[in-house]
Amino acid sequence: MGGGIFSNSVGHKLVMAVSGLFLVLFLLVHLSMNLTLVLNDVHLFGHHWAKGELFNTGAHFMISTPLIRLMEPLLAAGFIFHIVYATWLTVRNRRFRPVGYAVRSGNHLTSWSSKNMYILGAAILLFLVLHIWNFFYRFRYTEMPQTVVNGVTMDDSFTVVSALFEGSVIYCVIYMVAGLVLGLHLSHGFWSAFQTVGWNNVRWISRLRVISTIVAIAMGVGFAIIPLYFLVVR
Ligand code: HEM
């Protein structure tokens, strides 16, 4: 192994932290945007928003803002990078450190979590293939129903999303499970990443545990609430 920054633990920390943070930031924006799916018939920003209007306005803003469209290939690259890098690290760790890194917290925990991370990650990847086909492909490459909100004609994205959930209990369950799997993946994600880089500082590891637990629960519950909402109101 050479001595470059990416072949030592500081390099791994940087790579995992940057790609992970980037994906978490996307997920936070994605979740905030998607939560407007459950805000129907509400008064907000001095406006009354009828069913679906808030989500459609948000989706319209996203799709018609060049800077946001520019983020798409970057986001895809971020996902691919995260997956490929995590695979490489997992294989490398198993080969070179079969007893694991985290002496302090027990080897079985580290290997259990790392095995789980891979299965959870693979499940998220499978979900993403289905998810991109369900929405992204549908929104971009097929003819969308139209609606008018506050005088502006736009795609009726809300109807497409609600039709999927209202038309299928199985999809609701798949999306709820995906939210929870994502939550689990994130709760171990911080751990796995920081243990891998050998950040064993006791004070920070406990802070990170709190932060990762809060982020993981917020994401898992947040995403799961949306299909649950459609399951209940249908
Ligand atoms: C209830 C849960 C979810 C709903 C309702 C939802 C909804 C959507 C919609 C409507 C789009 C299309 C946006 C567009 O093309 O303009 C989309 C795209 C996407 N979603 Fe989700 N999503 C959910 C959960 C997730 C989760 C858990 C992940 C990641 C693990 C995820 C990752 C993505 C990605 C990568 C895209 C493509 C990029 C983009 O268009 O922004 N989504 N989602």
Short recap of the structure:
The chain is mainly alpha-helical and 234 residues long. It has helices at residues 9-35, 53-63, 66-96, 107-141, 157-166, 169-196, 202-233; strands spanning 42-44, 47-49, 146-149, 152-155.
Topology:
Elements: H1 9-35, E1 42-44, E2 47-49, H2 53-63, H3 66-96, H4 107-141, E3 146-149, E4 152-155, H5 157-166, H6 169-196, H7 202-233
Helix pairs in contact: 1-3, 1-6, 1-7, 4-5, 4-6, 6-7
Give me some keywords for this one.
234 residues; mainly alpha; two-stranded antiparallel sheet; elongated; binds protoporphyrin IX containing FE
What would you note in describing this structure?
The protein has 234 residues and is mainly α. The chain has a single domain (5-233), classed as Up-down Bundle (3 helical TM bundles of succinate and fumarate reductases). It has seven helices and four strands; from the N terminus they run H-E-E-H-H-H-E-E-H-H-H. It has helices at residues 9-35, 53-63, 66-96, 107-141, 157-166, 169-196, 202-233; strands spanning 42-44, 47-49, 146-149, 152-155. The strands form two sheets. It has a two-stranded antiparallel ribbon with strand order 1-2. A hairpin with a 2-residue loop joins strand 1 and strand 2 (47-49). Helix 6 runs antiparallel to helix 7 (202-233). The longest helix has 35 residues, at 107-141. The structure holds protoporphyrin IX containing FE (HEM). Protoporphyrin IX containing FE binds at residues 30, 34, 59, 62-63, 75, 124, 128, 131-132, 135-136, 139-140, 161, 175, 178-179, 182, 223, 226-227.
